[in-house]
Amino acid sequence: MNPLQALEPYIDDIYTCNRTRCGFCREECPVYRVEGYETYSCRGKMLVARGLLEGTLQPDEEMARMADECLLCGYCAARCALHNVEIITALREALAEAGFQAPKHRANADQILTEGYLFPRTSAIRREGTTPLYLGCLYQSKPAEVKTILSVLEKAGFDPLIADEVCCGYVVEATGDAEGFARAQERFRQVYAPYADQEILTLCPTCTITLRDKYGLRVKPAIVAVAERIGDLRLEPVAMTATYHDPCHLGRMLGVFEEPREIIRALGVHLVEMEHNRTFSTCCGGGGGVTAVNPKLSAEIAKNRVRDALAVGAETIITVCPTCTPTLLRGAGRLANEVDKFVDVLDLWQLLDKALAR
Fold first, then answer.
1. Given phi > 0 = left and psi -120 to 50 = alpha, else beta, which region is 55?
2. CB of 297 within 8 A of CB of 35?
3. Residue 4 has what pLDDT?
4. Which of 5, 104, 222, 241 suits 274 as a labelling partner, its CA being 20 to 30 A distant?
5. Structural domains of the chain in order of their starting residue, each with its CATH number
6. What does the pLDDT read at residue 122?
7. Degrees to nearest 5, angle at CA 329 with 326 and 333
8. Alpha-carbon radius of gyration of the chain
9. Three-state SS string across 293-305, please?
10. CA-based torsion, 49, 300, 326, 307: positive or negative
11. Rounded CA gap, 10 and 84, in Å?
12. Could you tell me the mean pLDDT of each successive run of 10 residues in the chain, 358 residues long?
């Protein structure tokens, strides 16, 4: 295969960006905010893609590192009419085809393709029930968190069914392995076939968008399902001033903005909004595989997001994503060493369970 074949469908978009050079994508890009180099912005990556297509640049390790240090968070796409996330994913694929893929990405893809899941687990989580609930790799490795979520869902009147699962394969595609992703899809369809014609409740935003867009399944974020019943639940109020962090996939890409906020307000929380919220929320630092290849960069991005919360006087950041919560918590801990103030990070499921338990 021609290594650049993955980029060819996007030639018009790449040249449109190169010719206009508007820069709307650049200034608030979380990676550019830390790195400060044009190449790390979407506009810079478009120039690199053009150089590859025209032959003025050749793939190398430095170029691959630049592509790997992208969150694939979609902030640039929200500021632009072009298919930025797809183009950067194609750029990663082209570089991987040319032999330049981060060893950590290769190892993660191999883990998924070999074992069927990414994160280590003590044992597979199962539950008999009537409504399919897809946990995904990360939650399968977090039994305590799953117990909390099941507690909320049961109190809200749901009867979750947790069946055999394998990874949705997002990481395989996002890190440049198109052929491997096709194999991951085939395996997923075989394992999850009994539930493919039902509406599936989901927990991980990244899994949700993958199941919807790559598999064509009917999915509903479980937090949305709970929000639809929030008026029927008896909740003890929670006294705190907090802000809500919109996960990139749940908010910007799935359009779930108001339902988590409705739940937070129903809990009695005084909600304050960060400058970057909803469609223009900035990433926690955990997207796109950046944590695997450059944990320092991920931590700096997380610290910047916590700074956004401090700027509006929030004592706590609430979110609803298994990646965002620990990533922001690490950032909050590191930032506390610099500013002598710790902003707590809580998962919305955790708050809900406590309010219902009372």
1. left
2. yes
3. 85
4. 222
5. 8-101 (no CATH), 131-227 (3.40.50), 234-357 (3.40.50.1860)
6. 81
7. 140
8. 20
9. HCHHHHHHHHHHH
10. negative
11. 9
12. 85 96 91 94 96 95 96 96 96 96 95 94 92 96 96 97 97 96 97 96 98 98 98 93 98 98 97 97 97 97 98 97 98 96 97 88
Phi-psi label, residue 297: left if phi above 0, alpha if psi -120 to 50, beta otherwise: alpha
Contact 184, 169 (CB under 8 A): yes
pLDDT of 164 reads 95
Cα–Cα distance measured from residue 132 to residue 218, given in angstroms and rounded to the nearest whole number: 11
Task: Give the model's pLDDT for residue 358.
Answer: 62
Predicted confidence (pLDDT) per residue in 280-326, tens digit: 999 999 999 999 999 999 999 999 999 999 999 999 999 999 999 99
* Global model pTM greater than 0.90: yes
Please state, as a whole number, how many other Cβ atoms lie within 10 Å of the Cβ of residue 285.
31
